[in-house]
Amino acid sequence: MEIFEWIIALLLGAALLAVLAQKLGAPYPTFLALGGVLLAFIPGSPNWTLDPHLALTLFVAPVLLDAAYDTSLRDLRANWRPVAGLVIAAVGTTVIAVAIAAKWLIPGMPWPIAIALGAIVAPPDAAAATAVMRQVKLPHRLLKILEGESLLNDASALLVYRLAIMSAITGTFGVSSFAPVFLLTVFGSLATGIACAFAIRPLISFVRDVPISVILQFACTFGVWIAAEAIGLSGILTLVAFAMTMARHIGPNLPARMRIPVFAIWETVVFVLNAFAFVLIGLQLRPIWERLEGGGARIDVLLTAGVVLIVTISARFAWVITYTALKRRLYDRASTNESVKPTFGSGVVVSWAGMRGIVTLAAAFAIPETLPNGMPFPYRDLILMCAFAVVLGTLVLQGLTIKLLIRRLGLTDDNPVTREVRFGRARAYQAVLDSLKDNDSLPAKLLSKEYAALLDLNTGNTLDAPVDDVPGGPLRRGAIMLARQETTELRRTDIIGDDAYRILIRELDWAELSAGGDREI
Question: Is 355 in the same domain as 481?
């Protein structure tokens, strides 16, 4: 019962911290990180442990699938150069810089462990950054670059992490010995993910019940990850290929009554996993802190963690600013399209958006506690402290200031999504009108008038109106609110029963959503 009570209390605390973050316009992982620190030193807090082998599967797999499902292949293709630079070069620069710094600070640390530490802190979690950037309307291209990076940098960093941990366990380290494994892992994982998507697609497509569909989706997500890891492939790359294939071939066929609740459930799961990741890593800090007997040992660990934090931030800055400067020079020589010219401000924002999150925590936690010979894994406690310091430091330092930085640099959104939405609506509504033009029935005439109004709204030259605006939207929402009140009164007076009430309310809810119901009346 005590564990259950703690779980409820922690979920409530995470929800309240997220509400506070929304009020302050900050990313909620920042407040979860601060809550994890406080939890580590609360007397009487639980002493929970988690199997390290389970950490990456539990925390990373659902989060990665949720991100990959929403990824735009078109935007990845359009921005493949900067995304590849961040995924490969920026991650590689961070891994090398942190490994060298760790080796310099602790000469006795083996190179594989130093590289593993660099790989753990290398991949930024752009979820926190994009949450802020959507509030301040960052240029769409920068947002897509960061989202593409957040999807793929986990794969590149954790591939290095996996090879480094294997080297630390086996005692061998060499590029030539791991190159075939690396190539087989990359291409084999991508092929396996695509094959799994096509194999599972008939099963997912056949189900039209929301609870069963959600259970199947979670089972398939974990199943694909576990199967890939079991045969020596990369769970991350396999799941990315699986999710992106499923999104292109399954997503469009989901009915609306399934799509809305399914998306809401996945969003909730991602939030809960973030909350528990910070809780569990916070609970690990207290015993580590207690094992560091004497003030000197604690000061040494804090200094090491501080240096790793500074090097992690600086390495990303070094790569991004260098890349931006080179692109500007090449642009001035060969291009005349001002709309895609890189700017110093955009480079600063991309550099400062390197906040770390759940992947870093899960990777640190996934380090085995012991080696095959039964000896403790060397420097595991130090790596856990450094990982949490980097996550906490970047989320607090960068997460609480990036919104102000974007505004000070004067970066604005060119609003391509709104233009594309209006164009798509115009084409879709015109197709509806063409299908109704030979129908003289009263319902057809009413539909024609409604879609003609929608077509007129979305073919204007102005982009000032909200993208979710509909003709008479406020009037419709007000009418639906009155209808809902009347329906509630009918149930209260027992004129209609609960079964009829739920059917009517569901109909009104769908009508409200179609009238832009997520906006105020």
Answer: no
